[in-house]
Amino acid sequence: MEQPGVGRINSNENENASEKKKMSEEFESNTIMESLIDMPLATLDIKEEFGITDVAHKNKESSKGNEQVRKDKRKKRKKKDYQPNYFLSIPITNKEITTGIKKLQNAIIEQDKRLAKTMSRDGSFHITLLVMQLLNEDEVNIGIDTLLELKPLIEEILQGKHLTLPFQGVDTFESQVGFVKLEEGDHIKQLLEIAEVAKRTFQEKGILAGEDRSYNPHLTFMKLSKASWLRKKGVKKINPKLYEKFINHRFGEEMVYRIDLCSMLKEKQSNGYYHCDSSVVIGDKNGSEPDDAELVRLSKRLVENAVLKAVQQYLEETQNKNKPGDGNSVKTEEADRNGTENNIRK
């Protein structure tokens, strides 16, 4: 027979457990968001630079068990949890382009020195191909593997040809973000195809990737959000007069030879470029000339190989010295040599 109040106590316990579970889930979700927001780049700054919206994307179904599990987990995330923190980057390294951008930036700063804080840093110039959310090391590793799988798909689109991006003119997004424009041409169609294939490939791996708005490739050179205090000074928009001399300026052409998986939040490299977890080479830069990043990786491999070879040689020598009978072998060799010399004398 059930004791008076026992049913009510069990009911309360179940309600408390359910409430605790709900609070735990909310705490976990809030912790993820706080960790992203508290990183070096402000959320608003990230959104404006990478064109991010707070809308989650549904992923395509897959027959693979593990991938389906990952997808299901990601689908359960609320829309507010989709805060991209990684992106695919096409680095802009042509000195003609970067020098032209510096001239543009300096021309604007000469007219209003306060805008110096709004300029993109040297070495950080790039075109964003795709934004995504990678919350832990496992997801970053999935992103790295997916980028490798993306390489042949991109090469299939290019059909053995190089993708060259010509830049000409200047424009803004709602007078808040200044960017150098891409010229019209077939290269934009190819770039859009690559962006779509990248989005589909990453989503098929269960990664939250992409955005709601249409893809608009651009080369950012300044953002008012980098100096939010300017609003208090009355600077709320980028005045077109500041860059009118560059409206039709031709900055040059960039040959796409590399695509990087970069972090929006991790500390940038010493050269100003973003933290890069992985890269794929699409074509040779300037023919067969390797880029700086490739030279650094090559140097590291050479050093590692040299150290490994030295360690192996040391271990082999140590093992040979410690082998039983080594001392006797030396003595025997000396005895044989002495015997040979005595026979010669005779």
From TrEMBL:
Residues covered by the A-kinase anchor protein 7-like phosphoesterase domain: 84-280
Biased composition (Basic and acidic residues): 57-70, 331-346
Residue segments, region Disordered: 1-27, 57-80, 315-346
Domain A-kinase anchor protein 7 RI-RII subunit-binding: 289-343
Biased composition (Basic residues): 71-80
One annotated GO molecular function: protein kinase A regulatory subunit binding
GO terms of biological process kind: regulation of protein kinase A signaling
Protein name: A-kinase anchoring protein 7 isoform X4
Organism: Erinaceus europaeus
Lineage of origin: Eukaryota, Metazoa, Chordata, Craniata, Vertebrata
Gene this protein is translated from: AKAP7
